[in-house]
Amino acid sequence: MDSNEATTSESVSKKKGKTKKVKRKVKPDEAPVQEMGQAEGEETEKKSVSGPCFPPTFSVSEIKNKQRRHAMFLKLKEEKRKAPPKEVPKTIENQRIYDETTVNPEDEEVAFDEGTDEFSAYFSRLTNPKVLITTSDRPRGRTVRFCEQLATVIPHAHVYYRRGLALKRVIPQCVSRGFTYVMVINEDRKVPNGLVLCHLPDGPTAHFKVSNVRLRKEMKRRGKDPTEHVPEVILNNFTTRLGHSIGRLFAALFPHDPQFVGRQVATFHNQRDFIFFRFHRYIFKNEKKVGIQELGPRFTLKLRSLQKGTFDSKFGEYEWVHKRHEMDSSRRKFHL
Amino acid sequence: MQHDDVIWDLIGNDSFCSYKVKTKTQRFCRNEYNLTGLCNRSSCPLANSQYATVREEKGRCYLYMKVVERAAFPARMWEKVKLDRNYAKALEQIDENLMYWPQFIRHKCKQRLTKIAQYLIRIRKLTLKRQRKLVPLSRKVERREKRREEKALIAAQLENAIEKELLDRLKQGTYGDIYNFPIHAFNKAMEKQEEETESEEAEDEEEPVTREFVADDEFEESDLSDFEDMNNLKGSSDEEEDAEEESREEEESEEELEEEKTKAQSKGKAPLKGPIRKKRAYVEIEYEQETEPAQKSKAT
């Protein structure tokens, strides 16, 4: 029994709870090994050392041979010096359930779709954006100010007061006047809480929930008002197919060629299905450093539904609708 | 008619009536058949045996009439007449039905009809316009969303992401020639630094293997200070191009002399060379004697 245990201790890897009997059995096994010639001894030693064959109670000091002991000691020291690999912490982004609609950059099908969808006109530089911003009925002060600030942020944007007009009537009028976007900010209890973004000729309509609106007055350490220069656009983390289309929706709001003189940048950053909008002015201090200063309003959006065609809540065809019970069941699943 | 005054006495001015709603200035009557809505002697449907009202049901107006003869039959007390949709015709109908009735009731009925007609028109107009759909918010869901948004904001690290993106764009060259950072020079400098660090590391590893204390000959030449020694060393190293290792070691020794205790070179050989240097300094007794009394004087 004991001899069996001894032999297994040499061949099998770490076993916990080794008794002292086994250890002593191992020693006499090693002693004859050490008594043999150095060359052979070294080989067997090395074989036993290379595989994790030692019982855990083994320590270097028990090797009788000085040189071999020294070699083992140096080896152990070397291993200790190499720090253990740093473990990567789990984050929600790491653990995100893989979405099969994630767009591969070289995907031809997606590229073809994008070449022929409603935004292709914009992306092939046929049209220039012109945005109409309006609100729901009877907007209160905060919403009105928000609209004004949005109009400064987005170039070629016009704010119109909604006098109880139906959107369905508004849209053909806008089309006839050459607008490419209609943005309706919905208000609830004196605070903007919804956004309907409709791409005009016959584009998709996206409905967002708006939260955490900060007007320019409320920003800390903000810069001066944004100028008339066309800002750059940054779109972050729009990975899935749906995210891609929403990203293009935002991109088409802004004119093509940003004026770098203005040094302004508008960012739409998607994180866990929340889209954060920020507007900054940047300055490059040197090659490796850039300073940014927040200017305009900030808000966060959450997509509620994406409808093909212009705004038509009754008969429209919805590409994507947020269904809470189906889509919010998992904390690691995101759709944008 | 006989009982009207009695009834009014019982329920009327300061008495109790279950339909009565009293405010500071006025008395209202909640009776559904009341013509004006106020609690008055002439408007009370209980205290008037002959009474008429106009009421609206599902968009149609009806004229209700009550007469004394039917006072004993509560089930049939109110006579219901459907009025025409046309406002003018409905007025005529009222006139026709309430032909010999008191002026007050006729007038009030017509007024009530007018008001009802107006609000029906308004309802129809509003239904044609956009309806505001009220969507209930679930408090639990709202709280959950708010929390998730905060967490997402923290995870997003927006400033860093924006800065990174901008720097990437700068590197890619989307900005063209606007920003005149000396890119090439910078990159070259970076590469040089990398080479130097690599070479130094390589040398550090090699040092235990090849220990050559070559500088003995040169040091015997000069009787100057260490710094001047180094100047000579530098000059000599520039001139000599015998062995790269030798020159490198000399440069290193110069660096070590310049920076007294080199923190950067924490690997093997610096301490070894240090004591050797000091030994050499101690060998040349002149230095020692010069420094020591100075220190002593400073101490005192």
Automatic annotation (TrEMBL), chain A:
It is found in: Nucleus, Nucleolus. Residues 14-26 have a biased composition (Basic residues). Residues 1-59 are annotated as: Disordered. It holds the Pfam family Brix. The keyword rRNA processing applies. Keywords: Ribosome biogenesis, rRNA processing. GO terms for biological process: maturation of 5.8S rRNA; maturation of LSU-rRNA. SMART domains: Brix (SM00879). One of its GO terms (cellular component) is preribosome, large subunit precursor. Residues 129-312 form the Brix domain. The keyword Ribonucleoprotein does not apply. GO terms for molecular function: rRNA primary transcript binding. May be required for ribosome biogenesis. This is Ribosome production factor 1. It comes from Sinocyclocheilus anshuiensis.
From TrEMBL, chain B:
One of its GO terms (biological process) is maturation of 5.8S rRNA. InterPro entries: Mak16, Ribosomal_eL28/Mak16. The keyword Zinc does not apply. Residues 190-279 are annotated as: Disordered. The keyword Nucleus applies. It is found in: Nucleus, Nucleolus. Residues 6-119 form the Ribosomal eL28/Mak16 domain. Residues 193-207, 215-229, 238-259 have a biased composition (Acidic residues). Keywords: Nucleus. GO terms for cellular component: nucleolus; preribosome, large subunit precursor. It holds the Pfam family Ribosomal_L28e. Belongs to the MAK16 family. This is Protein MAK16 homolog. It comes from Sinocyclocheilus anshuiensis. The gene is LOC107691589.
